[in-house]
Amino acid sequence: MLMEMSWLLWPLLIVPALGALVCLLLRSPKTVLAGVCAVVAAEAVATGAAVWAVFAHGPVEACAGWFYLDALSAYHLAILLAVFGLSSVYAWFYFGHEERAGHFSLRTARRFGALWLGSLGAMALVLISNNLGVVWVGVEATTLLTAFLICLHRSPGSLEAMWKYLIVCSVGVAFAFIGTLLIGAAAGQAHLPAGDALLWTRLRDVAPDLNPALLKMAFIFMLVGYGTKAGLAPMHNWLPDAHSQAPAPVSAVFSGFLLNSALYCILRCLPLVEAATGNIGWATGLLTLVGLVSIVVAAAFILFQRDAKRLLAYSSVEHMGIIALGVGLGGVGVFAAMFHVLNHSLCKPLAFFSAGRLGQRFGTHDLGVLAGAARSAPLWGGGLFVSLLALIGVAPFAIFMSEFLILKAAVDKGDFLVMAIFLAGLSIVFVAALRYAIAAAWGKSSEQPAPAQPLPIEKSTLIEKALVWAPLGLLLAVGLWMPDFLRETLTQASGIITGGP
Amino acid sequence: MNEPIDGLMVLLVLLNLWLLASSRLIACTRIVAAEGIALGLLPLLLSWDQGISGRLWFIAAASVIIRGVIFPQLLLKALRQANVQREVEPFVGYSLSIVIGVLTLAISFWLISRLPLPETPHLALLLPVALSTILIGLFVIISRKIAINQVLGYLVMENGIYVLGLALVKEIPALVELGVLLDAFVGVFVMTIATYHISREFEHLDADQLDSLKG
Amino acid sequence: MTMNSTTILNLALSVVLAPLLPGVINRTKAFFAGRKGPPLLQLYYDLWKLLHKGAVYSRTTSWVFRLGPALGLAAVLTALLIVPTGGGSSLLGFDGDLILLAGLFGLMRFITVLAALDTGSAFEGMGASREVTFSALAEPAFLLGLAALAKLTGSLSLTGIFGGLTVESWWSAAPELALVAAAMFLVFLVENARIPVDDPNTHLELTMIHEVMVLDHGGPDFAFILYGAALKMWVMGMILVQIVLPAHSGTWLVDLAVLLAGLLSLGVAVGTVESTMARLRMVRVPQLLVTAGALSVVALVLVLRRPV
């Protein structure tokens, strides 16, 4: 059942856009950071209303079909706001410390606020657009808006990372546009009117009649293009640099949602391609392959990683691979992949939060120096320890559950080779990362901490504690017992990917 | 209205080859600007017979102004500010670059003839030239050292995609087209600012030397 | 008049008028430089003078050195017989003669190079090496350009090609023809040792390409070389002009007038290029030739995808 409710979706774009402009006018770094939190809170309210409408009444359409919100996009939208909400609050503390140390000027603060909210709006645009062309515009906009967030603090390293990110992702996403054009051409062949040629809902209706060869080509371009942005190997080169050089709140958003928003675009196209090629599993097979490659490549790099943020970045490559693998396997795997999106997006920001604050404390992200951090900085050291455990899939946390379900999907399908590679990748990551997690908790710092300018550590406030333990508690709870509404949501979202009603 | 379109496509091919052969960054910038202006005229020629709507005039004008005037101005300004290198400094020599450019053209013709693309006999040149332009843009990005050159390569690639879009999709909604143009605009804007910061921080614009982050 | 007699008349005119072309170029250059310049007929005077001199042969040279000029002239005269001279027919045209044309030019170059090497002079060896390098790059451009024309007109003989090219061809295949013409113009400049590849007026052996190879020839031998070079320029000029101005009015006099006017403008064009451009650095010359080849290939690709 469709509803024409423009008023429900417009605020999702208008609030961040206005907020970004307002940020440019505020007069002190503190007010900018507070303003960001306020705008994100307002956006969260608007999102809450839209998501509630979708799950209560079915998909929402607006503006003559240009906007469309169904279970899949609403679910992603909710995660987007969760990630941004957590990261904005964290940014208050992270940049607050820098500001007291004199590293966070008003100019930087304004730039941060405007770009931060701008990218929030762009990601929201990706999720609520029905037109594949506008989706592409949104993805490219996120690239451009987030580029300068990487080099908020200008240094040779951050500039290099920013340049790589900018060029690699712009070129990659340009390929996705070729894919979009090919879908448009297929729609033209299927006699869809020109105005509707790129509308996802119209395409879905005529998907079985679309030219399979064109759709296959389109999907390859999309997979390469959006896959670059999503950090799927072997197109992931920009990712570790950007994640490690960006300030921690930005890394958290990159890992927590930027990658997912690109992956979301691939997932959107998947049912179209599958329907056009006759549901023979061509596209899902490709996705499985890319997923496995990502897992293996990430595992290989994690093995030799010493930098905490780079380690987490490669872990993101791995988790994007796991999500792609789950969707590729089909069946319960899609459900599990959707579940995994939530788990990863909750857990990874937390890990970056901890790594970032420890980095401020110790002046480095070297894991050798960070060893034993849980003693000297209990909250964030502990946070890093537990979030690493959760990320590598230690049992009661939800990530274990979703990975387990994906394994189950592989077994159901009888695909034991995939299962073996998947397991091998997971165990390598498990062992490699566990080493560092244990060191972080109980180890002895191998090197004398020699920070350039260590920021004075302050007593953790209640909110900071909540920032660490609330997501972890949530992960634990969801891992132990999945509430009905979440199960229903996941079922609906995965139903859209598999091409169900 | 076939011959002018064919002529425009051949012009695009020649400009691409010229870009590969040019050793001066300023000349390269001008060539890309010329490409932008030529491509702005393409949608007008394509729908000359059906009559040109106001929407089309608007998009053509926006395209010419942004691709033909604003982009080159931004890049030339960045070049002046960087004030370091004026030579292209290729990894691949000019002659070999031209040969590769011609090869991409031949490959594109061959590929397009194989692919199950919608039949557009009167636009036979559009698709292969678009593909070869995209490939040449990619080649410029990977074969030239200077950061500004990579921006130029990106622009050439965008030009190719633009032609591809005109050939493949009958009518892209104006909003999408403007969005794409806006993205390209902001993209170049951001990239030139980035080159400015890189040249200030490193005192060069050599993207080849941006290699400290590894592993 | 019958077809053959007009052709023979045209041939005779070519043989007589060929030395005029360098004169036109030199006058154009003189005009740009603000000089009066040598008379139009200067090359005739030079040839006359040289033919009345005796030749001096170094003791280190062999019969190859003496064979060079004569064989070179013979080759280019043969080439003249297979290239249509206005109005679209040649005396000895046959299918595939475009390969022979390239072969004859190759033979001419080959024997010139051999004669140069035969002297044992370091300068001449250097010139020979450069000549061979550049012609190896120019030849593909020339042949591929002809191949594009052959495919366009569906004929394998020069007569057929230039007979098949009409003004209408320019309406239907303007891009291809323009590309071939541009490539041929570059090949023309290279093959005839003009700026921007080679400077016919240079006085420094180190920078010479073509001129340095013939330094040791004198008297009638040198006259043969000069005349052969002029004739080669005429032949290639005719090819170029017949691509750009494919006139087939049927009236002998009109076609001839178009051809001569075309050659005259070609001379002016070359003179203009030489007056306004500097010679390229030696390392950039291959790039120019590769460009010419690229133009030919693009033309060929465009012709090939054309529905028959």
Describe it for me?
The complex is a heterotrimer of chains A (501), B (215) and C (308). Chain A is an all-alpha fold. Chain A has helices at 6-23, 29-57, 71-100, 106-128, 132-150, 156-189, 200-206, 212-230, 238-245, 248-276, 282-303, 308-329, 332-362, 367-370, 373-376, 378-391, 398-413, 416-442, 462-480, 484-497, and strands at residues 3-4, 60-62, 67-69. Chain A has a domain at 281-501. Chain A is 78% helix and 2% strand. In chain A, strands 1-2-3 form a 3-stranded mixed beta sheet. Helix content of chain B is 74%, strand content 0%. The mean pLDDT of chain C is 89. The chains are: A mainly alpha (501), B mainly alpha (215), C mainly alpha (308). Chains in contact: A-B, B-C.
Give me the secondary-structure topology:
The complex is a heterotrimer of chains A (501), B (215) and C (308).
Chain A: E1 3-4, H1 6-23, H2 29-57, E2 60-62, E3 67-69, H3 71-100, H4 106-128, H5 132-150, H6 156-189, H7 200-206, H8 212-230, H9 238-245, H10 248-276, H11 282-303, H12 308-329, H13 332-362, H14 367-370, H15 373-376, H16 378-391, H17 398-413, H18 416-442, H19 462-480, H20 484-497
Parallel strand pairs in A: 1-2
Antiparallel strand pairs in A: 2-3
Helix pairs in contact in A: 1-2, 1-4, 2-3, 2-4, 3-4, 3-10, 3-13, 3-20, 4-5, 4-10, 5-6, 5-10, 6-8, 6-9, 8-10, 9-10, 9-12, 10-12, 10-13, 11-12, 11-18, 12-13, 12-17, 13-16, 13-17, 13-19, 13-20, 16-18, 16-19, 17-18, 17-19
Chain B: H1 3-21, H2 25-46, H3 54-82, H4 94-114, H5 126-143, H6 147-168, H7 174-202
Helix pairs in contact in B: 1-2, 1-4, 1-5, 2-3, 2-6, 3-7, 4-5, 5-6, 6-7
Chain C: H1 3-17, H2 20-33, H3 42-51, H4 63-82, H5 97-118, H6 122-153, H7 158-164, H8 167-172, H9 174-191, H10 219-244, H11 252-276, H12 285-305
Give the number of helices of chain A: 20
Our count of helices of chain B gives: 7
Secondary-structure element pattern of chain B, one letter each: HHHHHHH
Q: How far do the termini of chain A sit from each other?
A: 11 Å
